[in-house]
Amino acid sequence: MKTLSYQTFKFQTPPQNESAVTRKDDTAKTFSSQEPLTKPHKILIIIPAYNEEKNIGAVLENIQKKSPGFPILVINDGSSDNTEKVAQEHNADVISLPYNSGYGVALQTGFLYAVKNDFSIVVQMDSDGQHDPANIKDLLEEVQRDTCDVVIGSRFLSKDSYKSSLARHAGMLLFGGIASLLCGQKVTDPTSGFQALKGQAIQFAASDNYPPDYPDADFIILMNRCGFKVKEIPVTMHASPEKESMHHGHKTIYYVFKMFLSIFVTLLRKYPKR
Fold it and tell me: Which of 125, 172, 202, 252 has the smallest set of CB atoms within 10 Å of its CB?
C-alpha cells in the first residue's frame, strides 16, 4: 500500500461546528449519543506503531485473516526500524510521523485521518499482538447500537485470566476505581487500547481535548462528562511479546503523576448544564 503524507494531518482540526470542541472558555460541549451512523458504515482500523517491525506483520496478517475487508491505517510513530516497510508489505496504508511523538499523538493522527476521510466507525488496537483481531467484530457489533458511542475491550471481563505485574494491576485498580466513581459506572480496564468509536466520538478524539500522552482513565472520564456513552465488553488479550509495557520503570512514576494531573484538570473544566 502507500505511505500517506504526515503534513496533510499535522495541524488540521475538525470543522468548527456543534461537534467541535473549543478551548476559548475552557468549556466542553455536550455531544448527542443518538446521532445515526451513515449506512453503509465506513470502518477504519488504526494501529499506532513504534519500532514494531518484529510484530506488525503478524498483527496485520491476523487482522486480515480473522476480520478481513477493513482498511487498515498504521501510524508509524517515528520508528528507527523497518516498521513502515513491513506495514506496507502487508497491504496497510501508513502515515509516518517525522519523530517519535508518543502514543496519544499517534492515535490522534489516525482520528484526524478518519475525520478527514469521513469514516463513521474507528477501531483502534495496538501493534504488538496483544489484542486478538477475532474480537473486532464484537466491538463493531456493540458500537453500532444506539446506546453506545465508545466500546472498550476489557481483559478483565473475559473468562480467560490475564496476568500482569503487581504494580501494573494496582495501577489499573486505582485508576479504574477513580473512573468508576466519577463516571457512575464500573470501569475495569482503564488502560485498554482496544476500542471502537463512532460518529461524533471520533470527531471528539480528533479535537484538542485528546490527551497527548496516555488517553486512558482521564479520557474515559472526559467523554462521560461530555455526554458520550461508554461501555466495556470482554475481549481476549495476550501478553505483549518481547516488549516492556509503555509504563515500565521510571515511566510508571511519570504516568501516575500525569494521569492524576490530567484527571484533576478534567474535573476543573466547565460543562454545560443539561
Answer: 252
Residue 245: per-residue pLDDT: 52
Give the domain ranges of the chain.
41-268
How buried is residue 259: exposed, middle or buried, by Cβ count under 10 Å (0-12/13-18/19+)? buried
pLDDT at 266: 82
Which is nearest to 187 in space by CA: 170, 200, 175, 204?
175
> Which string of DSSP letters, residue by residue, matches 163-186?
---HHHHHHHHHHHHHHHHHHTS-
Q: DSSP letters of 210-223? A: S-SS--SHHHHHHH
Give CATH for domain 41-268: 3.90.550.10
Burial class (CB in 10 A: 0-12, 13-18, 19+), 245: middle
Question: How are beta strands 43-49 and 72-76 bridged, if at all?
Answer: parallel
CA distances from 121 to 78, 224, 260 (A): 26, 19, 30
The pLDDT, as a whole number, for residue 265 is 84
Cell 474480537 belongs to 135
